[in-house]
Structure formats: C-alpha cells, structure tokens
Amino acid sequence: MQVPAPFAYARASSVDHALDLLAQYGPEARVLAGGHSLIPMMKLRLAAPEALIDINDLTDLSYIRVEGDGPAAGVLAIGAMTRHAELLASTVAGQHFPIFHDAERVIADPIVRNRGTVGGSLCQADPSEDLAAVFAALRASAVIRGPAGTRTVPIREFHRGPYETVVGPDELLIELRVPLPPPGEASGSAYEKVERRAGDWPVAAAGAVLRLARDPGDPPDAPPRVVEAGIGLTAVGAAHYVAAQAEEFLRGKPATEEHFVEAGQIASAECNPSADQRGPVDYKRHLAGELTVRALRRAAARAREVAA
C-alpha cells in the first residue's frame, strides 16, 4: 500500500489558529511541518490521521537567537519551525554548540534538511532520531503551548517512548531552549555517528557536552575538571536518549582520556539496543561506548580551545 488513507486538510495561519484547528478536529489530527517522516508513514498506512493541520505558514516559529544575559549567561532559543538547513547554517548555534553542526551534517540529505524541522524531528520521537540525543545532551527544555497556556518541559522528560511525547493532542511544541554555560567555564560539544550509508538513520550515535573549569590552586599543566557532562545516545535503547550514569561518573573528575574511556564503558552498559538489519546487540553496545569516548574527547578538545 503506497497511498494514504483519506484525511481532512487545513492550513493554519497562526499558532492560535493551529490550536483552534487541533481542537476542532480532535485527537486523531496530526500536525504537518516538514512531513518527511509523517507522509511516508501515511503512505504505508503505518499512520492514518483523520486530519492534517499544516503549520508551514507559522514562520514566526522559525528563529535561532540568544536571549538574556548576566550571571546565568542566557539561553539559545530555537523555534520549532526552524529547518534543519537553517540550524546547520546558523553561526550563532555553531559558535555556542558545535554539536548542532556535527549532527545536522549527517542528518538525511539536503532535500530533507531544507524542509524538515527541528520541532518535527523531536515530535516524531523516532528511537533513532539524531536531534533527540543532541538536545538531551544539552539539557534543553521544550516550550509547549496549548489551550491552558504555555508550559516548559525538560527535554529529558519530553519523550515518553518510541513515537510518543508529552505534547498533548491539543498542544504544539513551539520552542527549544538551551542554557548557555555561565561565565568562567569553558564549554565544548561534539556528535559522533556511525551509519550504513550517508544520510541513513544511525546504527548508533553519541553526543557529548562538557563544561570544564580549573580550581584556583591547580598547576598550569593539570587537566581541567568536569563541572557538568551531558551524554546523549540514540539508536541504542538509552532511556530518554541519555547515558545518565556515565554523566554522573564524570562530574567533578579531571577531563582525562582514562575517565572518558571509563565513561564510555558505563554508557555501553546502561544502554539497551535491539538487534535489527543495522547490526546485532553486541556491535551496537560496542559502538555506544566507543562513540561516547570519541564525542567526549572531541568536546573536551573544543572546550580547551575556547579556554585558550
């Protein structure tokens, strides 16, 4: 079957209009942004929404900007309708978090990146989704709007399971907010992915974010310590796309190769991959550990460059 089931179609002109349409069509309606995940599923009858609410005219949800300043250093705000290509091209996003450019370069192909959206990817909640691991590593928050108003949810609580999120049937994801590191700390991030062919879903992938600092009494040649570590994993069955035990292990320790290797072993042990056409369980578990080490190593090198 390569033809979608019959469905109603409506095009929203604003966020409020989109919410009204979701209320009108009920819980069997789906939001259409880029459509590169939803439409193929509809053609295969894996999804059969009764209505599609097209939000491509909601251009006010397409932006990448830094908000706030002061001791907290503000946040990087990314609108849910931001296209992958826009995130890849964003100097602001790449300056603060190179992990975005790392990941976007290996997501699908230019055709998909030109139309696919950041919010759509997260809401699709595919177990192998790249940006879910990236935002989890960054400890981002999701801003969700519905009839009752706006609420903010930590991205690590956003995904309830495969293809399921906390966004209600009458709500919209409107923004992602990533906290910037406070002054005095060097930050680095990186994303590592193994795929069968260019643009494919990952066999396994890992994202790492490190905040490093030196104690006043440390000798000049001593490695900085890890103030905060974020490790995101995708395609390997990690709960909420996170290697939480590996993060906790690194916190407060010197940023050394030895500790990165041990963190990779912990990440490998705490994930729960499934065997499929992309590889057996042991191979995926090995990749989870190895890619975690590579991402941590590159994130630490970038943090040191910032501090230099």
Task: State which percent range the strand residues make up.
Answer: 25-35%
pLDDT average, as an integer? 95
Structural class designation: alpha+beta
Give the biggest beta sheet.
5 strands, antiparallel
CATH architecture of the largest domain: 2-Layer Sandwich
Domain module tally: 3
Write down the Rg: 20 Å
Helix content: 25-40%
Number of helices: 11
CATH top level of the largest domain is Alpha Beta
Uncertain residue ranges: none
| Order of the strands making up the biggest sheet | 4-5-10-6-7
CATH superfamily of the largest domain: CO dehydrogenase flavoprotein, C-terminal domain
How many strand units? Answer: 13
What distance separates the N and C termini?
58 Å
Gross morphology is globular
CATH topology of the largest domain: Enolase-like, domain 1
Order of helices and strands: EHEHEEEHHHHHHEEEEEEEEHHH
Provide an overview of this structure.
With 308 residues, the protein is α+β, with helices and mostly antiparallel strands. The protein has three domains: 8-54, Uridine Diphospho-n-acetylenolpyruvylglucosamine Reductase, domain 2 (2-Layer Sandwich), CATH 3.30.43.10; 59-179, 2-Layer Sandwich (Uridine Diphospho-n-acetylenolpyruvylglucosamine Reductase, domain 3); 186-307, Enolase-like, domain 1 (2-Layer Sandwich), CATH 3.30.390.50. The chain is 34% helix and 25% strand. It has eleven helices and 13 strands. The strands form four sheets. A five-stranded antiparallel beta sheet has the order 4-5-10-6-7. Strands 1-3-2 form a three-stranded parallel beta sheet, covered by helices on one side. α9 runs antiparallel to α10 and α10 packs antiparallel against α11. The N and C termini lie far apart (58 Å).
